[in-house]
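forwarding from the other thread:

> can someone predict this with adenine?

sure thing
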Amino acid sequence: MRIDIITVLPEMIEGALNCSILKRAQDKGLVQFGLHNLRDYTLDKHRRVDDYPFGGEAGMVLQIEPVDRCISHLKSQRDYDEVIFTTPDGEQFSQKTANELSLLENLIILCGHYKGVDYRVREHLVTREISIGDFVLTGGELAAAMIADAVVRVIPGAIGDEQSALSDSFQDNLLAPPVYTRPAEYKGWRVPDVLLSGHERKIAEWRLEQAHERTKRLRPDLLGR
Ligand code: ADE
């Protein structure tokens, strides 16, 4: 899979893509990232990529030309399945979206800008608009990094133990059960006996029960989905 990210702040994303599981996934050849500085695609001699909005509102708006030039350049190299735009008024990102996107070959993620982009970008160049939640970030960079992270970790082989991505919270609309490690007792706080019993069926039953109990208590909305 290939993910190309278009941004005015590549340095804000670079670190997130180059450590831990995302770094390992690149090293294993499971994903290739391209980071593209929008300023490299402007024809403006001062490398400006935004301008005042028509109609006279406050704030600057990303111009369509550098965005179109960058996307056209990428599309001349390969076909893309989606051109995603990160914006607080997009569809809500979820585990289901991450799973879906992980099956695609090539993605572009265009990072939103704090005041917005020329709406023609959204009308003509973008195929999908995604929000990571009902709050406003200063730009779409952190959202793009989060989407890339959530997508890449579910690519088979990205996580050492393949089972573990499948047993994440949200994979079956259930929160994950608690996990513990040694020591079995610390300051008198004990790990549940069943986990020490070695009884596989009982452990599996306990985990499922715990997942249901935690979901009912903390996220009852998931159970109706
Ligand atoms: N850009 C600013 N806020 C955002 C959000 N909540 N989701 C996606 N992109 C954004």
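Residues 86-88, 112, 131-133, 135-137, 140, 143 surround adenine (CB under 6 Å). thats all i got for now
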